Amino acid sequence: MEEYITSFLYYLEHVKRASSNTIQSYERDLRYFKNYMEKGNSTQVSQLTDKKIEAYLNKLKENGKSTATISRTLASIRAFCQYLVKEELLTQNPARMIALPKIEKKLPKVLSQAQISTLLEQPNIHDTKGIRDRAMLELLYATGIRVSELISLRVTDINLQQGYIMCRDEQHERTIPIGKSAVTALNNYLANVRHVLIRNIADQTLFVNCNGYPMTRQGFWKILKIYAKSADIQGEITPHMLRHSFAAHLVQNGANLKSVQQMLGHSDISTTQMYMHLNEETEELMDVYNKAHPRA
């Protein structure tokens, strides 16, 4: 089965032009599934059946995996099996009739505008690391880009005079405006810090770590957690919460959904609509609070 998983991943990358994150997700799900099949002495793709797939999904549920994880795993297996049908290695897709588990839609967790302001004030803008960190945090909140997009940015992707960045992936590119605070932080970083940190002057990566190499997702995650703690933000904070906060605050302040969709890079506006629901929920809570609290 291993060789077919490998060829499927190659097909995703070179034919379907899937993103690296998507390919990694498929690979992880399929290798876990392959290991499960091999433990049951099922090593051939011809041994793939709906019963075995359902048994694996039930095992994931017994092991406490979330509905979202189980749903994504089934989608990965289904896509793999469809590829095997396409390659005439299976006559039909054994996963096609297995229903996706219903996922309870939860509104995203966001930081308040006050929390964001406190968070952005944490880096020490009088030292090299703090200047870089302030630029990263300001840019992430100013644009709502994903952390994977942040660390992939190149110097040539930003235009500080016009106040925008170009964000690219394997299939799309989008222009996102940036405000004065982010422009100021980026100017400071580019003028005073990046050339000090960068190890290879030919490298066009915008953000680098203290060793001069491109910043990683894990590296940024650690940086964010340190500043969240110093800002006394309770609970777990993730880079994606800044993306959610960016979108939620735009909607709260009157931005139209179509524009927010374009900036976030959502292919379907229904994904962006959750921020409208979040805004409605916030307004309802504020209305109840203002009417009921004696000191409101």
Search tags:
14 helices, DNA polymerase, domain 1, mainly alpha, 296 residues, three-stranded antiparallel sheet, single chain, hpI Integrase, Chain A, 2 domains
What this model shows, in words?
It is a single chain. With 296 residues, the chain is mostly helical. The chain has two domains: 2-86, Orthogonal Bundle (DNA polymerase, domain 1); 113-290, Orthogonal Bundle (hpI Integrase, Chain A). It is built from 14 helices and three strands. Strands 1-2-3 form a three-stranded antiparallel sheet, with no helix packed on it. The termini are far apart. The model has no long low-confidence stretch (mean pLDDT 87).
What is this structure's SSE topology?
Blueprint: H1 2-14, H2 20-39, H3 50-62, H4 67-86, H5 113-120, H6 128-143, H7 147-152, E1 158-159, E2 164-168, E3 173-177, H8 180-192, H9 194-197, H10 217-230, H11 239-252, H12 257-264, H13 269-272, H14 274-292
Antiparallel strand pairs: 1-2, 2-3
Helix pairs in contact: 1-2, 2-4, 3-4, 6-8, 6-11, 11-14
